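pinging the channel bc i need a second pair of eyes. not urgent but kinda urgent?? the chain im working w is below, pasted from the shared doc
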Amino acid sequence: MFFTTEMLFILIAILIVCLIGFKKYVWFISIGYGLSIFITGIMLLVLYHNILILPYILASLLLIIYGLRLGGYLAYRELKSASYNKKMKNEISDGSHMTIPLKIMLWITCALLYLLMTSPIIYRFVNNSGSDTCFIVGLIIALCGIIIESLSDYQKSKSKKKNPHRFCDTGLFKIVRCPNYLGELIIWLGVYISGFTALTSIGQWIVATIGFLGIVYIMFSGARRLELRQDRTYGEDPEYQSYVKKTPILLPLIPLYSVKKHKWLVG
């Protein structure tokens, strides 16, 4: 079985926290994203309290901590950062053109994606698969991703405070131009791997794989948006041109320096 009553309860909880996107549509994919991962971890602890073992608790806490960190960071940036909002004012639509049916479609689509992304861990609870090496390795990989993402956010914030008008090329930004997106990919790769020995049917494999491929697409789309925005801001800076020619955009050691020509990355 690839969809259970417990998964329906988790989906309903995600839909509830994603209602925040009706205030500002971009919150469906920012603050609502973090809150969705947070509430998924909470729901797992509540729904499966009778089978909790230490690795299950750690997996739930991983989702909770990640969701709180990401949701809190994005909420602060959206609500408190005047410089960010000024910069994004002309970059992101306020959503006034969106009809209610379109917002409802986006609301449901985002909630389903968040459920699918976390499904490898959910299925381990659903199938009561216990703990094994694959589960532990996956959680460690996901934790490394959280550390990379958190560190890159900190390094960029520190760099912008020092010089608000210069691109960031220090710390992890020396390795790739979008280390926060790299961290995000590593998190969900770890989550995906953690479920390998828990998935018990083709349907479950399809659900988990769609969730992972979905976030991969979104991260590359985000990297493209950032590249286009930075080209407009720093495109005439010789140092920036040198930086982008020698620093991969998202994946370390892989000579992929630009994705702006790939217009299908529009998520």
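so Residues 24 and 258 are 30 Å apart (CA to CA). and The chain is about 65% helix and 0% strand. — does that match what u expected or am i reading it wrong
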